[in-house]
Design brief:
- The protein is about 20% helix and about 30% strand.
- It is α+β, with helices and mostly antiparallel strands.
- It folds into three domains: about 150 residues, 2-Layer Sandwich (Gyrase A, domain 2); about 80 residues, 2-Layer Sandwich (Alpha-Beta Plaits), CATH 3.30.70.1400; about 130 residues, Gyrase A, domain 2, CATH 3.30.1360.
- A hairpin with a 4-residue loop joins β18 and β19.
- α5 crosses α6.
Length: about 375
């Protein structure tokens, strides 16, 4: 029988469109996925072509699928801290933080970028999951005076080495003073925005949060016009670049079944903070006992591999010991790179493994991450 025709997968109104959906259609997206119950354009050209354009010029992509959970009210700060293991008392108004939302058993429910808009006002820009429902359930029993909602907020990402020039032309030279992981509330031609110095590419970049969903096409066109002298083009997310940069994808590389110590994100856990967060005692116990598995970087030998659509089995001494979650060919490294879950005793750099890829068994080696720019100098520059 022929393979199933994916174009027959039904769509309908329950799959929401972003405020930029109509504008993106003019550029002929080649594919969509569904993320946070919303249609998400994956690419407009060959993935490697988009990767090189990101590295050399400037790209614009619709990330409205990063739906935000808004926390505000008299107990907003206390409740926001209840969600995450990172000490929010160290986060100033106007600052963003990469945080983990922790389950009672210490698992990671999400890894959003959090923006602090006021002393008791926060946005959590989410990966693909239903954290708003979790937060509402938690609030029902927390006994705090807090309001939770999904605000009318839709981010775009402007990424690449020439993004600064586009931002300067849009907002004036003062925008270039914006520090990494900080943001400013502003407007463009009367369109209300929040502009952050963040991104999901490990390149220089910004996120532009639209605060009025009726003006999506207007904002998109204004940015594309400003970017024309710098060869701007719309793209989807670059899995090549995010894997090179050691950026993880919640739901693919780790889930609620994994804890921060296994993933290598223990820097985002402050067990001694003055505030309380859900899962604190579980993480304290995990830290004391140690973990049995880790997520590591791997180089997979042989010819170019296409991005994996399913997990690949990892073998050692002929026995299954783990799985590769994300793997892809890096055009500039000329290597297949990715992430793998392995037992702790197999996680040391230099350890040899076998990966059952879609193209057959390949030898692999555990290596340090990130694969490119380990000091993260590029996005900060």
């Amino acid at each position: 029988m022929p393979p199933f025709d994916m174009s027959l997968v039904q769509r309908g109104a329950r799959l929401r469109r972003s405020p930029f959906h109509e504008a993106t259609q003019r550029y002929w997206p080649r594919g969509f996925t569904v993320y946070n119950h919303m249609l998400f354009p994956t690419n407009y050209a060959d993935f490697e072509e988009e990767y090189w354009h990101l590295l050399e010029h400037v790209t614009l992509w619709d990330v409205s699928v990063e739906r935000n959970v808004e926390v505000k009210g008299p107990d907003g700060a206390r409740f926001a801290q209840l969600l995450t293991s990172r000490d929010l008392s160290r986060c100033a108004v106007g600052q963003a933080k990469y945080v983990l939302i922790i389950a009672p058993d210490g698992g990671i429910l999400n890894d959003p970028v959090m923006l602090r808009l006021g002393e008791d006002h926060f946005w959590f820009a989410l990966a693909d999951s239903d954290v708003l429902l979790y937060a509402k359930g938690l609030a029902a029993y927390a006994g705090m005076d807090v309001e939770l909602a999904e605000p009318d907020v839709s981010p775009l990402q402007l990424q690449g080495p020439r993004s600064k020039e586009v931002m300067r032309d849009l907002f004036g030279p003062g925008i270039l003073d914006l520090r990494y992981y900080h943001f400013v509330e502003t407007e463009l031609d009367g369109i209300p925005l929040v502009v952050t110095r963040t991104g999901w590419t490990s390149e220089i970049g910004y996120e532009i949060y639209l605060r009025d969903g009726r003006r999506g096409t207007e904002l998109w066109d204004r940015i594309m016009e400003a970017g024309r002298p710098y060869l701007i083009r719309p793209t989807g997310p670059s899995d090549i670049r995010r894997i090179e940069g050691g950026i993880l994808n919640w739901g693919a590389d780790f889930t609620a079944e994994h804890n921060p110590y296994e993933v290598g994100l223990e820097r985002l856990v402050d067990l001694d903070m003055p505030g309380h967060f859900v899962g604190r005692e579980a993480l304290r116990r995990i830290a004391a006992e140690g973990v049995r598995r880790r997520l590591v970087g791997v180089e997979i030998e042989g010819e170019r591999l296409d991005f994996n659509a399913t997990e690949w089995a990892v073998l050692a001494d002929g026995e299954p010991v783990g799985e590769v979650t994300s793997a892809i060919w890096s055009p500039r490294l000329r290597k297949n790179i990715g992430y793998a879950w392995v037992p702790v005793e197999r996680s040391a750099t230099g350890n040899r493994l076998i990966v059952e890829t879609g193209a057959g068994a390949r030898e692999a080696t555990v290596v340090a991450m990130p694969f490119v720019d380990p000091q993260k100098r590029i996005p900060i520059s």
